[in-house]
Amino acid sequence: MLGVYFSGTGNSRYALERFLGGCGETAGAYAIEDENITERIKENEEIIFSYSVQFSNIPKMLKDFIDGNAPLWKNKKISVIATMGLFSGDGAGMLARRLKKYGAQITGGLHLKMPDSIADEKALKRSREKNRELVRMAESKIDQAVQRLKNGKPPREGIGFLYHLAGLFGQRLYFSQKTKHYTDQLKINPEKCVGCGKCVGLCPMKNLHVKDHVAKAEDRCTMCYRCVNLCPNQAVTLWGKQVIEQGTIETYL
Ligand SMILES: Cc1cc2nc3c(=O)[nH]c(=O)nc-3n(C[C@H](O)[C@H](O)[C@H](O)COP(=O)(O)O)c2cc1C
Ligand code: SF4
Ligand code: SF4
Questions:
Q1: pTM for this entry
Q2: Mean pLDDT per 10-residue interval, the chain, length 253 residues
Q3: How many angstroms does the Cα of residue 212 sit away from the middle of ligand 2?
């Protein structure tokens, strides 16, 4: 079983690695930006996808990856883990439906509430202790899902008509435009940026570069929030005006 993930701050990667570890799988977990990812997928019949929900939707980069590799999914057996800060309705189901359209057989779905990755908005902010607790709860849910899989009854969270309705009317209709395109809204504060280039290497979209000792963003941001969470000078914002609290999964382990 191969693990494939889209992850900004590491939640979805961590969840997938724990799941695969519990199953005793050794094929490994790879990001969709891995240069050999399509070859790895071709070689494996069973795949488990893990990704972070954005506005109750699939991140644009992941949608493009699925659609751009349509022939890869035919006859694959695929389970989906969706991580979220609060609620997605049908996070796993959304990706499952897209893959099914290209001939995949969907074998399971799992929803995990994890620390919020939007570092520059107050909306879902929790204390560090609360985030640690969330991660512990997610770990326990993953371990239970592994047991269910071993017993031949994998969870099917997020998959089915009622989940679909919850996702649609929860907020997807309202925010449907947010993940339709890549965004040009990423801002870099030139007074805070020291041109260290850390963000350039982190960006899965190659959307950042340093010019004249200051980072610049182009218009291909997929809102993964890596650069916002990891810039050492808190110089990057996207939806909010200032960074409130930075964190990645390692902060809460
Ligand atoms: C742009 C953006 C939109 C998000 N929208 C939602 C949402 O609609 N519902 C939710 O529960 N969490 C939402 N989140 C929170 C993430 O889904 C959550 O923190 C996720 O576990 C991050 O995982 P990652 O570190 O693997 O990227 C959003 C995060 C980002 C960056
Ligand atoms: S990581 Fe921050 S300080 Fe370094 S180049 Fe990027 S924006 Fe500037
Ligand atoms: S610019 Fe930042 S938030 Fe946007 S895709 Fe790149 S790393 Fe992610």
A1: 0.96
A2: 97 98 90 97 97 94 98 97 92 96 97 97 92 98 96 92 77 78 97 98 98 97 98 97 96 96
A3: 12
